[in-house]
Amino acid sequence: MKLVFALLVAGLSAVAVHSAAVKEQETNVDQTFLNIQTDVLRLLEHVNQPSFYPDFVEIGNSYNISSNSSNYTNQTAVQNFLQYYNYNSFLPRGAVFSVFYREQLQQAIALFRLFYYAKNYETFYRTAVWARQNLNEGLFLYSYTVAVVHRPDTRNIVLPPIYEIYPYYFFPAEVIQQAYIYNQQHGGHANQEVYTITSNFSGYYLNLPREQSLLSYYLEDIGINSYYYFFNVYYPFWLDSEEFGLQNVNRGEQYYFFYQQLLARYYLERLSNGLGEVPYWDTNVPFETPYYPSLEYANGLDFPSRPAFANLYEYFYNYGQSWTTRGVSGYSRLLVNDYERRISDAVDSGYVFSEQGRVSLYSENGRNILGNLIQANPDSPNYRYYGAVWLYASHLLGYSPQPLNSNQVAPSALEQFETALRDPAFYSLYNRVLIPLQRYFINQGPYNRSDLVFPGVEIRNFSSDRLVTYDDPFYANITNAVFHSSQEHEEHDFNVRVQQNRLNNRPFTYRVTVQSERETRAVIRVFLGPRYDEYGRNINISQNRFNFVLLDYFVYELQSGENVISRNSYDSSLYGQDVTSYRDLYRQVLSGSGSQQSFARSRQNYFRFPQRFLLPRGSVQGTPYQFYVIAYPYQPRESQLNQDFRSYFYPYVGKEQFYDSYSLGYPFDRPIVFDQLFYDVPNSYFYETQVYHRENINAVHQD
Ligand SMILES: *[C@@H]1O[C@H](CO)[C@@H](O)[C@H](O)[C@H]1NC(C)=O
Ligand SMILES: *[C@@H]1O[C@H](CO)[C@@H](O)[C@H](O)[C@H]1NC(C)=O
Ligand SMILES: *[C@@H]1O[C@H](CO)[C@@H](O)[C@H](O)[C@H]1NC(C)=O
Ligand SMILES: *[C@@H]1O[C@H](CO)[C@@H](O)[C@H](O)[C@H]1NC(C)=O
Ligand SMILES: *[C@@H]1O[C@H](CO)[C@@H](O)[C@H](O)[C@H]1NC(C)=O
Ligand SMILES: *[C@@H]1O[C@H](CO)[C@@H](O)[C@H](O)[C@H]1NC(C)=O
Ligand SMILES: *[C@@H]1O[C@H](CO)[C@@H](O)[C@H](O)[C@H]1NC(C)=O
Ligand SMILES: *[C@@H]1O[C@H](CO)[C@@H](O)[C@H](O)[C@H]1NC(C)=O
Ligand SMILES: *[C@@H]1O[C@H](CO)[C@@H](O)[C@H](O)[C@H]1NC(C)=O
After folding, report:
1. Is 0.85 topped by the overall pTM?
2. Which pLDDT does position 647 carry in this prediction?
């Protein structure tokens, strides 16, 4: 599920990442790094209001991009930015920002390019401070974050958690409101205490429909949502891979695998709650699942909600609104249907129409091309013709009203990356978006036995500790949600935090016993999948292969004879700890205590699915799931042959993040001739297990 397949391969030994990292000599970060890290933290504080820091105020008032234009390496980018600025076309402060609206996206790209092409860090910094003080806050936050992650001189920096920078998108309006009330009563009184608000998931106060109410702990988890946001910061759908050095990355394939795994993970969670497959979205009938976000934008505007059985016909959807003058979103249903038809035609005919001619899809690079086509990124062979289904589908299902004009938009939760996963419709939407890809794999024909066996290698046994999940109180600092006065700024006297119960699991170890006839290098993939459907019927693997979640993926040096591979749940490079909080980052910076390695570990966590959600919740009496393990021969990609894997400790642009030359979804991406065959592959193993849920950590230890 990861961008980060990289690291473990240090020397290709099976040493757990953990111990490898510990043994390595920790190196102190230098002062330059600490200064930049401090700048980033200061810039992102209270981003919704102009800063009171005197140095920021000074730069905000005096810096002049036009007269300093020689400090940028791309004059086209500077001129493009200045056009927006001089014509006063930037989104005003206070307005809601969303990259799902074309005019706002263009502004964000212009600002990102200006940041990206700043000649040195000093220029980038001045530009950023100026933009923070003068441009729209959402626009600044987005472009700045993308720039920090992509600029060579800042990509080692650790960003604070997005849910602490912008709490509005992560906590319900009731929580933000309580913070305001507390501030009005207690702010500005040199009060050093930290006030704690207990946050509940939606469904605590509102009588919500079943799916949203049962699954709100998953849909609204701040870690999962922040993971999704960062995937989109790292691989923005509009980023041109040639211009920004991504061209060697299998971006399209990663796109597909990322979403497929999100869908599979959600299905496992549904099973724990007695629900089955995600409802299929048929554009011809009203959309059943309603959504009530309980979220408010910082300017007070509510996130739009969607009623049950929302009618998506254009006539109903646009009733009483202008069709012609307010952009294309009113035509979303038409566009979704047109683009989908063309993509299906490409998949079944085997050819994509590019502007230069036909491109074959059933080729070595085919799944990557198709992924780019479906994401509709600048690497798409033909954006005009195949369009962005997901974009128009998000307008449609989000059920937001058409914008009044390009500066007054009311985006739905689906139209912000920070909140998209909160709406259950997200999963129906991407289920449908990925159908052409599933069809593509089916068209390639089933795997036969020789595609799966690894001669001479046999998995003899598998065992695992008991799998237990529990509710774990978590704290997040939401001080940034409250506007503060210059006095509060100086005294730093106001602190609010949120306490929220989040799922977690007890660490567990599992052991795989592998018999090998010889010394050989193997790739091991470990999956967790469903065992029975929601009615308790046996799962048919061929039909459920898209519901297996990759838990672990590593290279192992098999010895001749018996090998017992022991792995801990913490060893998987695909899952990460919670992102380092504002407070801990500040502490590390001020004390100078962080090492390069500790910052690197913090940074990785952004790109990893939260470890807390490694397991689905399960139930008190136990919910059945199954492990699936497969060992197959290690074959590096051509481009990996002479590379040092250790340098890919975290993802960054232009580096590859996979282990080997097999498809990311192997062996579940293609169908199989006979379901039974899966059980007949000696180098693989199924193991049925149960996941137990306990209310709190004390009960966990009694198990
Ligand atoms: C660049 O901007 C600074 C303000 O930050 C200003 O003092 C300086 O004169 C500008 N440089 C030029 C060459 O105009
Ligand atoms: C920035 O400098 C240009 C000259 O390069 C000048 O025309 C413009 O008025 C200056 N802008 C501000 C806000 O001072
Ligand atoms: C400069 O920026 C423009 C867009 O503003 C972009 O099209 C072009 O590729 C960039 N040039 C270079 C050399 O990066
Ligand atoms: C920006 O350019 C001016 C000259 O145009 C130069 O004096 C100044 O030092 C540069 N600033 C930075 C941060 O490079
Ligand atoms: C969350 O629920 C608890 C009771 O379980 C309640 O005391 C608290 O006020 C609720 N929080 C909010 C923000 O409504
Ligand atoms: C198995 O399928 C592969 C293609 O996936 C093909 O090359 C091979 O010949 C097939 N083997 C058998 C025994 O049918
Ligand atoms: C497999 O491992 C389990 C747990 O260690 C053990 O009880 C069982 O006997 C083993 N089975 C075989 C066939 O070795
Ligand atoms: C699984 O489903 C496939 C496709 O419908 C079918 O051919 C096969 O017989 C099923 N296998 C089992 C064990 O039910
Ligand atoms: C909370 O965040 C604010 C703003 O980033 C910071 O000033 C404050 O020290 C933090 N408080 C705690 C208790 O972490």
Report:
1. yes
2. 34
